[in-house]
Amino acid sequence: MIVSARSVSLTYQSADGEVEALKEVSFDINEGEFISLVGPSGCGKSTLLSIIAGLERPTSGTVYVDGEAVTGPSEKIGFMPQKDQLFPWRTIWGNVTLGPELRKQKDASLAESLLERYGLSDFKKKTPSQLSGGMRQRCALIRTLATDPKILLLDEPFSALDYQTRLSVSADIHGIICNEKKTALLVTHDISEAVSLSDRIVVLSKRPGQVKDIYDLTDLKGLSPMERRSDGRFKEFFNEIWKELDINV
Length: 249
Fold this sequence. Notes:
CATH topology of the largest domain: Rossmann fold
Radius of gyration: 18 Å
Strand order of the largest sheet: 6-7-8-3-9-10
Low-confidence stretches: none
Mean pLDDT: 90
Number of domains: 2
Oligomer: single chain
Number of helices: 9
Helix content: 25-40%
């Protein structure tokens, strides 16, 4: 396994006293897997992602990435937030090479090849405002991939898109991640999205978030996201997970 969460708990202070956000969360992610994390609003999904990314420290428990305990941000992890956060004053090329630039890496050949491979090479001199929502998301993903991370953490990256665009873009991003053979963990509140994209789905309970169940979607392996939505088993998985969440709302 490439990611392993072991008894991860987090308690923080609020104006009303201590709040237990996560409690004894444990699960593993195998290399090359696409995993989704779903759960009721406020159950700690994004907080868990921040802990795995090394942006936040758990109160107890440990996350291991590639066999090493996470104690801070790692070059092995790429983070894609809810908004694309492209800098409007920089060109597409300037945006996708930001990571290598900050790391003082002179070789931008990976960014160049990714732009070429995924249809953005002709837009290198454009600014983000000149791109569609879907192209902006693709650009944001390429920026994350340009530093060659082993693991991608995706925090509801499609939530700002309209439904039709979201279906297309999520399938597009999923295809790129699979093609680049990256491991991915997606936080989403959309059960349909999780079932259409994932190898497995980790379901968290209401706060404090605990692992309630893990769904194996091996039966849908090999189908594209859109093909999954047309498959009879899609509804079965959706209904089962919906019932799990309904108990906890």
